[in-house]
C-alpha cells in the first residue's frame, strides 16, 4: 500500500492546525482544552479532522513554532531587555544579584553614553587619554553635555585643543563602529560596580598625573578642582614629583634616600636648581654626600632624558613607600604651598 500523502503546514487551514495541535497535546490536555471551545467551534474542528492526512515530525515542529510565535505576538511577549531586567530584579535580592553577576553591575539596556553618572570625569579622562583624538571627540559628542564639558576641561592643553577642533566638525559614524565603541566602554568602564569603578578611575588618573610634567598635571588638577574640589584633594594626596622633595618631612627623606643608589641620586640631581640639590644632599650620609657633590661639581644645569627618567623613578619610589606605609606624603596644603 502506498504511503498516505503528507500535507505541509503552509497548505493547512487554521481549523486543521488547531486539530493537529489538540492531538499533539495528548488525551488529557487536549480534552481539557477542547472543553473550552463552544459547540460550533468543536463542530468545525471535527469536520476539518476528516482531511488531516499524515503529519510528520518536521511538519508538527513547524506548526508548534508558528503557534508559539503568534501566541507571543498576541500577548505582547518579546525580548524587551527592560522587562527581563525587571523580572530578574524581582526574583532575586540585591545581594543574590551581586553574587550571580560576580560583582558586576546589572546592565540597564541603555546606550553606554547615558549610563555614566555625574562625576564620572575622573573615570573617563585617563581612559580617553589613551585614545585617538577623533575617538575622544566622538565619545564626548555622545555624552551628557555637562559631563562632556567637564572631561574636556580636564584634558591637557594641546590634547584638549586638538579634541575641541575635531568636535567642531564631528561627523556621524557607521552604526557598527558606534557599537564597537559602546562595547569597549561597557567592557572597560561600565561593567564594574560604582565603588570599584570610582577607585580604579582615581588610581588611573593619579598614575597618569604622576607621568605628566608639573604644569600639565597642575592644569588637570585645576580643572578637576573647579568641578569637584573634594576629588581634587584626594588625587593631590596620590601625586608626587621629584620637585616635591622639600615638602617631605626630614624623616621621610632619610627613609627614601636610604633606599636609593648613589648613581641614581646623581642622575636625578643633574640639571636641578641648587635649592633642590641641597635638600637632597642634606638627606644623605656624610660619605654619600661627598661622592654626590664631587660628581655634581661640573653640572651645568642642563636637563637630560636620563635625568628625567631618574627623577621619575625616585618619585615612583616615594609613592610605593607611601602605599606600604613606610613614609607619609605631604598634605594637600603642603602641595599647594
What does this structure look like?
The chain has 19 helices and no strands. It folds into three domains: 9-75, Annexin V, domain 1; 112-236, Orthogonal Bundle (Annexin V, domain 1); 242-336, Annexin V, domain 1. With 337 residues, the chain is mostly helical. Helix 1 packs across helix 2, helix 6 packs across helix 8 (145-154) and helix 12 packs antiparallel against helix 13 (229-236). The termini are far apart. The chain has helices at residues 14-34, 39-49, 57-75, 81-91, 94-101, 121-128, 133-142, 145-154, 157-168, 175-190, 194-211, 214-227, 229-236, 250-257, 262-269, 274-281, 286-296, 305-323, 332-336.
What's the quick description here?
This protein has 337 residues and is an all-alpha fold.
Provide tags for this entry.
elongated; Annexin V, domain 1; mainly alpha; 67% helix; 337 residues; single chain
